Amino acid sequence: MADPLSIVAGVISITGAAIQVAKSLTDLATSVKNAPTEIAAIQKEAQTFYNLILSLETSLKDPNIVAVVQQDANMTRTVRDIKNPLDHCVDVLEKIEPKLRSHLKPTGDGNWRVSNMDVKWYFMKSDITGLLARLESRKATLFGALHLVVL
């Protein structure tokens, strides 16, 4: 098994990227005026993920948590095992944002709207719903592992 400090550092580097992606998507979805339910769901899921990962990052930077990870092989494995579901969540969020952006039009006041004339949006909704379901599944896996680390 790799050095516990290397494992913690690797997960922290991923949390930084995850925080940026989740914040960007949250901000974008929040700025959509009269957002359809799918975009409201994106905002909610991205915000929840953002808060969760912020908590993880804070915990992994805590010297007391790092000491426990270094001393306990099970905790080291738990932190190591966070990497894959975390990567998968980031991957899903990165797929959602361009799909969403392609259907938004600026409102002129710094916000966005879904064009009423954008017929493609109505066909794209099922893709977005599928990605949200994948995100929820990955978050559930991640949450189980995080629960052990954040405690």
Descriptors:
mainly alpha; 151 residues; two-stranded antiparallel ribbon; elongated; 80% helix; 5 helices
Notes on the structure:
The structure is a single chain. This protein has 151 residues and is mainly alpha-helical. It has one domain (4-150). 80% of the residues lie in helices and 4% in strands. It has helices at 4-30, 37-60, 63-71, 73-101, 119-150, and strands at 104-106, 112-114. The protein has a two-stranded antiparallel sheet with strand order 1-2. It is elongated. The two termini are 23 Å apart. The mean pLDDT is 87.
Helix content: over 70%
Shape estimate: elongated
- Strand arrangement across the biggest beta sheet: 1-2
Number of helices: 5
Task: Return residue spans where pLDDT drops below 50 for at least 5 consecutive residues.
Answer: none
Mean pLDDT figure: 87
